[in-house]
Amino acid sequence: DGESDGNFEVHEDNYLIPAVETTYHDFCKTFDELNIDQSGGISIVGAMPVMTEETRRFIHHFTVYIAPSCGILAFPRSMIYVWAPGDSGWALPSNVGFPIFHNINAQAINVEIHYNNPSEETGVMDSSGVRFYYVNEERDEMAAILELGDPLLMLESEPINSGLTKYQFTCPGECSANIGGGSVTVLNEFLHMHQTGVRMTNEVVRGEEVVHTSSVDVYDFEQQGGFHVPQEPFELRPGDGFRTTCYYRDGDKFGLDSDEEMCIAFIMYYPAKEKFGNPWMCPYGDAFEFLSALGCDQELKFYDLDSVGELERAFGASNECAVDSHLLSPTASPITDQPTNSARPTIDIKMCSVCSDGITADSDSVIPGAGGATCASLISTAQATMLEGTDSCENMKGVEPFCCPTPADSPCNFCPSGLSAGNTFLQVPGANGATCSDLTVYAATIESESYLCESMKGREPLCCPAPVDSPCNFCPDKVSSSNAFLEVPGADG
To answer: Alpha helix locations (H) across 45-167?
Structure first.
């Protein structure tokens, strides 16, 4: 509601859509790249898709996130927009916004587009994206999107039976209670499946009673692949649970492809809730340990249905409120918190303490064997998503000698005369992608009398070979040109 102070677009620039059926393509923009005429934080107050008619048919859906930086491992990230056929965008109430560029965790906007090219057409160029409208100040209320069902696609590759089937995800009330804070106002619900989905519902359960139901009784992805439920804002209270149900006809399996299935409900609400710097969500599966500890993991039940009648359609009703939900107009004041009947136990959760005193190495250093992850991205992910004392946290602490090394009392004397010319960035076989230069960094943190130091010094002939009086006469007539890069069996790569 009301006017914005400006707008900016995040879109591709003539991206060549691959000639394959399914492509997920990411692109990202930082504050500096967007050329926004504002020195500090802003609030996003509206959004709309930007695409051409020529390429619209190739775009299955896209999602948009705020992130600390541009990078596949940038974490934490918060969803601000999801588009699918039928969606024309949104405008927030005059007191609500998505703040961005106001802190280190909100310095970039990442867009992921799912391209669907079943005919494998060639030469198709696309410049689609999203236009955001903003105001130059933070608004009173911060918006957020709660993801329910299976947003992390933990069911990927799981088969779906032929005929009519029903998948029901239940998020317990302890999740909304343990996440903290008071009541929130839901602005809209966005229900998403793929081609074989025929009906979808999302219910709010308070105690034993369903107090709100949103539904799309006849789901058609081609008409509206993400169904915006027509409804007034309503209240969610601490202790409310959710039941997200998807119905399919002759589904194949769950997955990313257009002809595979998903079941996700996106709930836009305010004020935003978070825990340990991460947005509130209740996904299926145990991808995030701290969410499971909070009770924010879903139970799944699935059924084969015998008839269309078991779809439980209620034609003509898109949402129902079984009790007084204190429905508000978009510009109304926040809902007054309702008292709870009994005190809930406090949950003591300690997040992973990897590099607890901070990163002392270059934060942009790429960690050997970590798929291109940097110290900054990997450490922030661990501290935000892993619990202290778990195997994943202890494994993550293995990067401490590289990212936050503690000097050894008697450091390993690796290559004391320095690395040989040209060997600085030479990858050491059997060292998980580490270079000779990386080993010199590690050596300073390893005690000289340790087994690790002994093992590391075994790499000196590669990184800093010392000349010998009578060198081994290996291949005196030189290596055959065709065998120069042949890996030698039993020689550790």
So the answer is: 53-56
Which residue reads 């081994």 in tokens?
472
Report the alpha-carbon distance of residue 361 to residue 398 in Å, rounded: 15
Q: What is the CA radius of gyration of the chain?
A: 27
Task: Tell me the backbone φ, ψ of residue 289, rounded to 5 degrees.
Answer: -60, -40
Q: What is the largest CA-CA distance in the chain?
A: 92
Q: Are 189 and 202 in contact (CB under 8 A)?
A: yes
Nearest to 149 by CA among 221, 202, 213, 196: 202
Query: Is-contact 212 317, C-beta < 8 A?
Result: no
Tell me how far apart the alpha carbons of residues 371 and 25 are, in angstroms, rounded to a whole number: 18
Following CA atoms 55, 73, 424, 487 in sequence, which dihedral angle do they give, to the nearest 10 degrees?
-70
Q: SS3 string of 343-393?
A: CCCCCCCCECCCCCCCCCCCCCCECCCCCCCEHHHHHHHHHHHCECCCHHH
- The torsion of the CA quartet 431, 437, 441, 444, rounded to 10 degrees, works out to 90
pLDDT, residue 73, reads 54
| Region 35-41 average pLDDT | 74
The Cα 431–Cα 310 span in angstroms is: 58
pLDDT at 327 over 60: no
Of 44, 137, 95, 47, the residue nearest 328 (C-alpha): 95
CB 189 within 8 A of CB 231: yes
| Phi, psi (degrees; rounded to nearest 5) at 346 | -80, 130
Contact yes or no for 248/165 (Cβ under 8 A): yes
Helix (H) / strand (E) containing 270: strand 264-270
Q: Could you give the residue ranges of the DSSP H alpha helices within 3-116?
A: 31-34, 53-56
Q: Cα–Cα distance between 80 and 86 in angstroms, integer?
A: 18
Q: What share of the chain is helix, strand, coil (3-state, %, to 5)?
A: 15, 30, 55
Q: Compute the distance between CA of residue 136 and CA of residue 259 in angstroms, rounded to an integer.
A: 42
Element (H, E) at 304: strand 299-305
Is pLDDT above 80 for 147?
yes
Q: Which of 161-175, 190-204, 321-335 has the lowest mean pLDDT?
A: 321-335
| Tens of pLDDT, residues 440-479 | 888 888 888 887 788 888 888 889 988 777 778 888 888 7
3-class DSSP assignment, residue 17: coil
Contact 380, 75 (CB under 8 A): yes
Contact at 8 Å (CB) between 108 and 28?
yes
> What is the band of 172 on the pLDDT scale with cuts at 50, 70, 90?
very high
Check: CB of residue 130 under 8 Å from CB of residue 64: yes
d(CA 120, CA 112): 20
* 442 vs 5, residue with greater confidence: 5
